[in-house]
Amino acid sequence: MSHATGKYSGTAIALHWLIGAMILISFGVGLYMTGLKFSPEKLKLYNWHKWAGVSIFMLVLLRSAWRLTHAAPPLPPMPAWQRFAAHASHVLLYVFMFAIPLTGWLMSSAKGFQTVYFGVLPLPDLLGKDKDLGELLELVHRWLNYSMMAVVAAHAAAALKHHFVDRDDVLRRMMPGNRT
Q: What is the pTM of this model?
């Protein structure tokens, strides 16, 4: 990040939008696949969803490492409650981005379905097979996702509010190709 421009680095911007797009697509696929009857298509979508979850988790690890070594640009002047809300929502998003893939992996392990990354790399089961625990983890995974989508919606609404109502640079500094 260049503090002279008040903009995020290209790496931070790329990771933000890539992870965001993958999360939204994975959420949509997750909603769709759970309503399908057992079929080869459903199995394919479950595998794709798991692969996306593992990829998101790895990208979030990379993003976290980047963020620890590259400070975010300072926020423009705003009320203290908005600063608090911005900080709290970012913390929640990071918690969700770690917790959701982990609960999915734990759920798969407890249900007896090993995750094999891209059909090539078997990941170790994190738990022994336990049907009741698997059902509980499925519920936790689902509600963490719903909760994250609420925070994502608030995050997007806040960015749009800053852009169109406050007319500050909060959204522009995270846009690809922005050179302001």
A: 0.92
